[in-house]
Design brief:
Length: 212
């Protein structure tokens, strides 16, 4: 993703407390209070410019959604989408996924979405991959029992690595596609990266895995 410096991004995020969560550590154990309706919470990590999470919130009003993104200059574009969408079941959080257990209590999250996560192809950067075992442990620590991770990428190396990592962690592989757009999966909502890379002819890989 080409990042433009947006020095005003943090100020803009602060101007929309109704959409952007500011002190997530104070909400640990209380995330339902953030949304109008008490219902399951699904989070996307590395939400980018927000196309996926906004589409999911519009399509599934019975689920609450939280898009988590590290870069203020990126999530500020997601904020524009959220403002326009005007849906009560969607919020954003500018934070690092490495801190998830500071924000959520065990069982507060029903599902984690990872879409086109940075592949970090060098071996020495393995620990940064969002499907590395330490991240899988963090997700386990905030998910309900038998909670799920739904993962999409066009990066074959990251996909293969992740399937191995899920399997070594003991996760159940519930659904795997090596070509999502040619599969029978219904209701796919494309991310910005998915649209860009599939237009280039890249195959999209997708999996659903479950904690036991
Ligand atoms: N999911 C979007 C899509 O498919 O269009 C964006 C994909 S982009 C390659 C990966 C995004 O993950 C970037 O916006 C990056 O800033 C974010 N990211 C990477 N590591 C993160 C972390 N530890 N916590 C939160 N966001 C992270």
């Amino acid at each position: 993703m080409r990042l433009r410096n947006k020095p005003w991004a943090n100020d803009k995020l602060a101007q929309y407390p109704q959409y952007v969560i500011s002190s997530p550590e104070n909400l640990k154990g209380k995330w339902n209070s953030v949304f109008d309706t008490e219902q399951p919470l699904h989070i996307e990590i590395g939400t980018g410019r927000g196309r996926f999470i906004t589409g999911m919130a519009q399509a599934n009003p019975h689920i609450n959604y939280l898009g988590i993104e590290l870069m203020p200059s990126v999530i500020v574009t997601a904020l524009d989408r959220v403002i326009e969408a005007e849906v009560p079941n969607l919020k954003l959080l500018n934070a690092n996924a490495a801190d998830l257990t500071e924000f959520f209590a065990k069982g507060e999250v029903e599902r984690v979405y990872l879409n086109f996560s940075d592949p970090w192809p060098k071996n020495r950067h393995e620990k940064r991959r969002l499907t590395y075992k330490t991240f899988l442990k963090q997700y386990e620590d905030i998910l309900i029992d038998q909670g799920e991770i739904h993962f999409k990428t066009d990066n074959q190396g990251l996909f293969e690595y992740s399937l191995t990592s899920f399997s070594e962690y003991g996760l159940l592989l519930k659904w795997v596609s090596l070509d999502l757009h040619q599969s029978d999966f219904e209701g796919n909502i494309m991310t910005e990266y998915e649209e860009k890379f599939s237009q280039k002819g890249n195959r999209i890989y997708r999996s659903e895995v479950q904690y036991r």
